[in-house]
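Recall that a protein's primary structure is simply its ordered list of amino acids. Everything else, from secondary elements to tertiary packing, is in principle encoded there. The following example makes that idea concrete.
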Amino acid sequence: MSDYLVLSYWDVALAAVFLILNAGLSLWLQLGLARQMLVAGLRMVVQLLAVGLVLKAVFAVASPLVTFGLALVMVVFAGREIWARQERRMRGPWGPGLGAGAMTLAAGVVIVFALTQQIGADPWWSPRYALPLFGMILGNTMTGVSLGLDTLSTGLWRESAAVEARLLLGATRWEATRPFARRAMRSGMTPIINSMAATGVISLPGMMTGQILSGVDPGEAVKYQLLIIFLIAGATGLGVVLSITGGIWRLTDERHRLRLDRLGGERG
């Protein structure tokens, strides 16, 4: 059996000293981030401890209904985060629904493919495999979708005159919004591209580091990390394309008019 490190809660608490140090620096430099740092850190601790207890119970039950139910809860919270990060949000159900729907479809397709083809979990929905993978893919896809939608909505709002000029000259809604769609897609995909470019040479990913610390052979850890990154990149790209396409469809109409009335006011 491979040796692995066992951490105590005291070890974790010691690492939190650096977060407190950053909060102190924020107060000293008057950055206004101290409260946000401490609240975010406390929220993370509470959430992870709760998730640990929930996952332990879910693994013991091993029920598909419980697994899908927990995945749905994750999707709801991720969709809420996408909506909350928008500078200008779509009105009505489209606000949280577009980002959540695109993210869920993209992550769902990728995770089912991975569980049935590469990982070969039996059953394929086994919570021990499905939920951790779904969480990693969902979190990264959420970031890409939120950045893409925010770039699209703010770009169309600020440069509405240019879009409407193209429409008046006879361009379709897809032609008139194409530069904004490209910009939004690049914005949404840039984080995962940068992450892939830096992985290995500049940084060791968290999953790979955790496996190595727990005693897994580095070669095996590398293979799993490559699998996860490719899955994340695929889901992020698919989610960004779906959300931006849906956003343009919603913010224009069949008469090829720009419909900024479907956007809410600027976030306060």
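The chain has eleven helices and two strands. Residues 64-266 form one domain.
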